[in-house]
Each structure stands twice: as structure tokens, then as C-alpha cells.
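Hi everyone,

Forwarding the result from last night's run.
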Amino acid sequence: MKKSTILLAVVLSSAAVIGQITKKVCFLGNSYTYVNNLPALIDSVANHDGRDLIKDQNTPGGHSLDAHSTNATSLAKISSNTWDYVVLQDQSQLPSFPYSQTSVSVYPKAEILCDSIRSANECAVPLFYNTWGREIGDSQWDSINTFSKMNNRLFIAYDYMAESNSGKLSPVGIGFRQVYDDASTIVTNGDLYSSDGSHPSMFGSYLAACIFYNVIFETTSVGN
């Protein structure tokens, strides 16, 4: 092989390595994260673009930020690596409840977790997983008894948590809203849900993965 060919191969190989971007992310949530293995889906999207997601998770069913704030496994995972992001996801309904409840059971717990994250690594960024309203909302309270009402309250709560804790937002609920509002989309809003009208279908999880990929890697999944 000619020296020029060898040199070109080395340059191309080096460029490929330089072009690879790796992010380390820990996911603390519940079934909205582990259904369809959202972290693995994000990694698959990243791999397609020559990127890599080093990931870990603690996602017991129904777990809340309150539960994670005292969960020994969650706290150990926060300290187990120099994470770029720690994803925080609350129980699906709690952030949409009245402020009299969220101000006690949600927002202070988010602050506790963010303090733990930064104590472990001051460069780690809390990334709030803005989940979606249920397909027909939550009938227990008039202010969230439709998809739009519940989805809007969830966005307000998660946006507040991200802003007040100097974190970032993964606005998956906004993605669900765009599908809901746009009649020309390939899938309908209903297609994003599993049969319970709450958990994501594979379409819903894939949409979430694309939005997370955009936020974590600061790029776009369009064309991936």
C-alpha cells in the first residue's frame, strides 16, 4: 500500500473518532421510561449518527420524584458516574395537580434531587422529562380532564422545575401536542398511546427518543 493511501486511511480514521460524540445520561423515572426501553431507543438514534449514549437507569413502576429523592439506588446511581445529564421524571399525574399539592410533593423533591446531582458532579445537568397528558385526560379533576388541559399543566410544571433548578427540559409533551394538533401527521395522537391511554406505544416512545436525542446531543433527529 502506498504511503499516501496509508496516510489517508489514518486521517479518515482519526476524523471518524473525532466526529463521534458520547454523552453519559442517567434516567430516574418510572414505567414511562422503561416501557419500550426509552434509553435504548435514544442510543439507537444516536448510533445511527455516529454518536453514543452511555446510560443507566432506575425506573420502578409508579415512582415519583419524592420516592427517588430518598431511594438508595437512585442516589447511588447519581454518584456512580460523571453524568452529563440526569433525567428526572415524576409520576405521570402528580405535576398536573393543583399548586397546593405540587408545591409540597413535587417541586421541593425536584430541588433535593438537583442538589444531589450537583453535589456528585457540579457539571451535571438535571434534564426534566416533560411527559404528556393522558389520551382523554384525567377525570378526577376538571382542570385536567382532557388531553390538552392535562398536557398544558404538565408542561408548565416541568418547565418551572427546569427553570428554577437551572436545568434543561425535554419537551416530549409538546411533541405529543404537535401530533394532536396536526391532522396531516402519519400517525394520530391516539397512535402514540398503548391500550391504557396513558403509557406510550412504540410510536410514542420513538417520538420521545427523537426529542431526547435533539436535547442531549444538541442536534436534530430529522433525516436520521
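Strands lie at 22-28, 52-58, 85-88, 125-129, 168-170.

Cheers,
N.
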